[in-house]
Design a protein that fits this description.
single chain, Alpha-Beta Plaits, alpha+beta, 2 helices
């Protein structure tokens, strides 16, 4: 499973990392998702947590990338 974090939509709420800390990282500098603008691979076994992190984003900045 891959997900894309939209750099323009992410506003740094950090809810994604709250529900999926092994998937989503926050920047120490500004609190935004550290992978903004990137497509990342969800580690095996973290799909359920990633889905919760995606659903928790109020800006809908994270989307699943179809392979």
């Amino acid at each position: 499973m891959k997900v894309h974090i939209d750099a323009e939509l992410c506003t740094g709420h950090g809810r994604c990392a709250k529900y999926a800390p092994n998937v989503f990282r926050l920047s120490d500098e500004d609190g935004y998702n550290a992978d903004r603008g990137a497509t990342i691979e969800v580690p095996a076994g973290e799909e359920k947590n990633a889905a919760m992190g995606i659903k928790s984003c109020p800006e809908r900045a994270i989307t699943v990338v179809e392979e």
